[in-house]
Amino acid sequence: MDTVVQWNIRGFRSNFEELKLLLNRSQSAVVALQECRHGEGQVPPRGYTLLLPQGESSGGEAALLIRNGTRFSEIDLKTGLHAAAATISLEKTLTVCSLYLPPNSPVSKLCG
């Protein structure tokens, strides 16, 4: 059974080995990561695709890791938030969004 996992990783590079262990044990189809702070040239673990927020090539606080072979389509979010999203085809079709809200940032209620 495919799983979706969420992890506030607190540093993609500093916790890369733990991330690989998690992926090997869980065989997750999708991992939503926050506080990535991934650097330029950082590559995803083997067997996974890394989706960053639109327009970001390095840095950033949110990301999705999607297992290769999993059908997905990236969603172009029109927002200033640190967020990456995709529609994923598993047993069901899911929309997964990884969102990072900095602790001191004001958040306004957008809908009723």
Automatic annotation (TrEMBL):
Keyword vocabulary terms for this entry: Nucleotidyltransferase, RNA-directed DNA polymerase, Transferase
Single GO MF descriptor: RNA-directed DNA polymerase activity
Keyword Transferase attached: yes
Gene3D superfamilies: Endonuclease/exonuclease/phosphatase (3.60.10.10)
Tagged with keyword Nucleotidyltransferase: yes
Top-level taxon of origin: Eukaryota
InterPro entries according to UniProt: Endo/exonu/phosph_ase_sf
Record's protein name: RNA-directed DNA polymerase from mobile element jockey
Species of provenance: Plakobranchus ocellatus
Lineage of source species: Eukaryota, Metazoa, Spiralia, Lophotrochozoa, Mollusca
